[in-house]
UniProtKB/TrEMBL annotation:
Cofactor field: pyridoxal 5'-phosphate
Organism from which the protein derives: Sphingomonas telluris
Top-rank lineage group of the source organism: Bacteria
Molecular function (Gene Ontology), one example: transaminase activity
Subunit structure: Homodimer.
Every Aminotransferase class I/classII large domain range: 27-382
NCBIfam families the record matches: PRK09257.1
Pfam families cross-referenced by the UniProt entry: Aminotran_1_2
Protein name: Aspartate/tyrosine/aromatic aminotransferase
C-alpha cells in the first residue's frame, strides 16, 4: 500500500533552502540554490516585469484556457532572442512549457517516443535534475567526465572521445551557457569542434539553455546553439526565461524542436503536444504573459537588456572579487554564470555550514551571487581557512 513506499532522496538543492532558512545565525550566507541576488542579497522583481504585470492586470479580460501551446505570441517573440538568425526557419517549432524543467522533460519524452534505443551522452557533473528526468522517460545515460576539478577547467579530450563513441541517433546533452554546476563553458572553438563531431557522428544535440544573458550577452550566450542550428537538421532545445526575466516561480519555459522539414516538425510537435497533454495539458500563463508583454511593448523591450546586463555585471564583478582574493580561486574569474565549484570535500562543505553558517551544495557548488557585497570577504576568508586546514 501507500504506507509501504520506501523513502526517496529529496532534491538536495531545494532542501538546502529550508536548511538555511532554519539556521538562526544572522550572519548566515545562502550560496546554495541558483537564484540571482543583488548586492544587498535580494531577488527583486525586474521593473519591466512589474510594469508588464500591471498592464496584464489592467487589460486581461479573461483567464479562460489558451490551449495546449500556451501563449503563442510569447513563443513567437522569444524566437529572435533564443534562435537568432534561425528565428524564421519554418523547420523550427516552439511550445511554451512549465519552466525549463518542463521543456527538458518534454524533449526527452519525444526522444523516447521516436527512438527508445537512443542513449543520452551526458558530461559529469551536470545539473542534478538532468539524470532523473532522462531516466524517468526510460532512456539510457552514458556519462563522460566533463570537468577537471583540480585544474578548474573542462576535460575537453574526454568529451571529444565520448562524443566520437556516440552512435547515430544518440543524444548529446549540452549546456547552452553558464554550465551548472561548474561554471565552465565551452569556448567558441570547442563549440565548433563539438558541432563538427555531432554532425560527423549523426548525433542529436539537446541544448539546455536556462541562463541566456547571464554569461556574456544574449547573442553570445546562444552562439553554440546557433552554430549547431547552422548545420544540424535535427535539434532540441530547452529554453528558460525564469532566470533572465527573474520570474522563477512563475515557470516560464519553451521547448524548441527542429527537424529536416516543416512537415516533419509539425508531426513531431503533435507528439510533443500529446506528451504535454498527458503531463500538464496546458502550461501556466501568468509568467509567459508578463514576458510576452515586455517583448511586445517597445519601451519595455528596450529596457529589459539593461536590467539583464545589471544582473550579469554583478555576477561577473563578484567572480572577479573572489578570483583576486587567492590564487587557488583564480579559475572562478574565468567562468560564467552563477555557479562554480570549490575544491572542497563534502566534509569541508559541512564544516563551512556548521562553523561559518555558509550554505552550499554538497558538491562544493556555490552561487556567486548568493553572496551580498557585504558577505564576500567573510566568505572568501572562510573558504581560504578551509583550504589551508
Ligand atoms: N537547466 C538548468 C541547467 C538549470 O540550472 C535550471 C534551473 O532551474 C533549469 C534547467 C530549469 O529551469 P526552470 O526553473 O525554468 O525550470
Ligand atoms: O541548480 C539550481 O540551483 C537552480 C534552481 O529542482 C533549481 O537550477 C534547483 C533545483 C530544482 C529546480 C531548480
Amino acid at each position: 500500500g501507500l504506507a509501504d513506499l520506501p523513502a526517496v532522496e529529496t532534491d538536495s538543492l531545494l532542501q538546502l533552502i529550508a536548511l538555511c532558512n532554519a539556521d538562526p545565525r544572522p550572519e548566515k550566507i545562502d550560496a546554495g540554490v541558483g537564484v540571482f541576488r543583488d548586492s544587498e542579497g535580494r531577488t527583486p522583481i525586474l521593473k519591466v516585469i512589474k510594469e508588464a504585470e500591471q498592464i496584464l492586470v489592467d487589460t486581461q479580460e479573461s483567464k479562460s484556457y489558451l490551449g495546449m501551446a500556451g501563449d503563442k505570441r510569447y513563443t513567437e517573440l522569444l524566437r529572435p532572442i533564443a534562435l537568432g538568425r534561425h528565428a524564421e526557419d519554418p523547420r523550427i517549432a516552439g511550445l511554451q512549457t512549465p519552466g525549463g524543467c518542463g521543456a527538458l522533460r518534454l524533449g526527452f519524452e519525444l526522444i523516447a517516443t521516436a527512438n527508445p534505443q537512443a542513449r543520452v551522452i551526458v558530461g559529469t557533473p551536470t545539473w542534478p535534475n538532468h539524470p532523473p528526468i532522462i531516466r524517468a522517460v526510460g532512456l539510457q545515460i552514458v556519462e563522460y567526465p566533463y570537468y577537471d576539478r583540480e585544474a578548474g577547467s573542462i576535460r575537453f579530450d574526454a568529451m571529444v572521445s565520448a562524443l566520437k563513441e556516440g552512435r547515430p541517433g544518440d543524444v548529446v546533452l549540452l549546456h547552452g551557457c553558464c554550465h551548472n554546476p561548474t561554471g565552465a563553458d565551452l569556448s567558441d572553438d570547442q563549440w565548433d569542434e563539438v558541432t563538427r563531431i555531432v554532425v560527423e557522428r549523426g548525433l542529436l544535440p539537446f541544448v539546455d539553455i536556462a541562463y541566456q544573458g547571464f554569461a556574456r550577452g544574449l547573442e553570445q550566450d546562444a552562439r553554440g546553439l546557433h552554430g549547431l542550428l547552422d548545420v544540424c537538421d535535427e535539434l532540441i532545445a530547452a529554453h528558460s526565461c525564469d532566470k533572465n526575466f527573474s520570474v522563477y516561480r512563475d515557470r516560464v519555459g519553451t521547448l524548441f524542436l527542429k527537424t529536416g522539414s516543416a512537415e516533419a516538425t509539425a508531426r513531431a510537435m503533435a507528439h510533443v503536444s500529446q506528451r504535454a497533454r498527458e503531463m500538464w495539458s496546458m502550461p501556466p500563463d501568468h509568467g509567459a504573459a508578463a514576458v510576452r508583454i515586455v517583448l511586445d511593448t517597445p519601451e519595455l523591450k528596450q529596457r529589459w537588456p539593461g536590467e539583464l546586463s545589471a544582473m550579469r555585471d554583478r555576477i561577473n564583478a563578484v567572480r572577479q572579487r573572489i578570483a583576486s582574493a587567492d590564487p587557488r580561486l583564480a579559475y572562478i574569474g574565468g567562468q560564467f554564470g552563477m555557479f562554480s565549484m570549490l575544491p572542497v570535500s563534502k566534509e569541508q562543505v559541512l564544516a563551512l555550514r556548521e562553523k561559518h553558517a555558509i550554505y552550499m551544495a554538497d558538491s562544493g557548488r556555490f552561487n556567486v551571487v548568493g553572496l551580498s557585497d557585504a558577505q564576500v570577504d567573510r566568505f572568501v576568508a572562510a573558504v581560504v581557512e578551509t583550504l589551508n586546514a
